[in-house]
Amino acid sequence: MSTLTLFFLLAVVTPLAYSSFNDEQEWLNKLNELEQIIQKTETPLNSAAAPRATGTTNFSISLECDPKPTSVHQLRPRDIDIVGAMGDSITAGFGIEATSLPGIAVEDRGLSWSIGGEMDLERSITIPNILRRFNPQVKGYALGNNRAPRGDFWFNVAVGGARSRNMPAQARDIIDKMINDSRTNYENDWKLITIFIGGNDLCALNRDTDATPENYVKYLQEALDIMHKELPRTMVNVVEIMEIYVLPEVGHGFGSTPQCRAAQLTFCNYIVSANETEKE
């Protein structure tokens, strides 16, 4: 099998075991807590849908048909044939169009910034929609959400509540999906896989001894090693952990409501309640 070359955009990482069931079950428990908050605060269940993501028309490119590169160091946007994504609820698209607490439970994977393929660039700015300007035949993007009829999530293997320790399992999952998908050429298609993980690791700092910077590096490195061994013609985009400490400072729109504050305490109590010393 040909060698995978890894390209790290914003982070470098190092290997251990993983536990996907516990983290996913914890996420489901949090959603149940959220449902109780909704019932107590009498948040309307039929709130109007939020506007779709704003797109852009300020985008001009040239579709030249040069030969495909043989090295990732020569890779251009138009060479990408397949997109994939690993991560947590953000990549899974939870609450992208939410205007009330119930909307947080909706997975709008088709609008996810790193893997969503809904609409086009004029209406939704996502990596696949940008890449389709260079290569209209790009594959692997997610469509739809988790409501009936369920969408086609394709190579979006993110799971709500996931942490860095779940990345090796997600790496194996995305490899299996790509190998067994008849719509793609596993050996010859160039792939772009985005990994965005870490918010839930930060939220677990005060309650799980496994949530340490050292283990974050280990688990992520294990996932990268798996892909390095198994995935040919692949560029891996590792995105830096988000600035989760700004959560308590959300002070406009829906973010200023008591319901939002209650949801923040449910999903990330440690960060929301942390003092300045703990944040450092």
UniProtKB/TrEMBL annotation:
Domain of life according to the entry: Eukaryota
Gene Ontology BP terms: phospholipid metabolic process
Keyword Electron transport: no
GO CC annotation: brush border membrane
Signal peptide residues on this chain, from the entry's feature table: 1-19
Molecular functions (GO terms): phosphatidylcholine lysophospholipase activity; phospholipase A2 activity; retinyl-palmitate esterase activity
The protein, known as: Uncharacterized protein
Species assigned in the record: Ciona savignyi
Lineage: Eukaryota, Metazoa, Chordata, Tunicata, Ascidiacea
